[in-house]
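From the pipeline queue, job 12 of 40. The input is one protein chain; the requested action is below.

Action: predict structure.
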Amino acid sequence: MLIEIDFNSEEAFYIQLRNQIIIGIAMNQYQEGDSLPSVRQLADRVGINMHTVNKAYSVLRQEGFIRLDRRKGAVIALDTDKLRAMEELQTNLRVDLARAVCKGVSEDEVHQMVKSIFEEMETRES
């Protein structure tokens, strides 16, 4: 598991951690049933507080990406509720696209970026 925290980013550490794990799942670096490192192990590995890792794992659990098991710790367990996922995507995408529009990003640029990201993920799945 390659997790890197950008200590200069304004993005919260737990969000960085959450996002990297979600991307890892999408790119098949982590499979259903895989155990993630313990809170202590991951905190030590990336140099952040254990409470920060715990918060990231809690958010991932709430969002349906992992389950917390007393014996195995955090385990990849995807909630496959597509309708809920689409609703969440639409909500998040609306805000992200509004930010992009405010910064002058065109619709064509967004389409190309989305296409590129999907191609990258499909390449990793192979």
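Job complete. The two ends are 19 Å apart (CA to CA).
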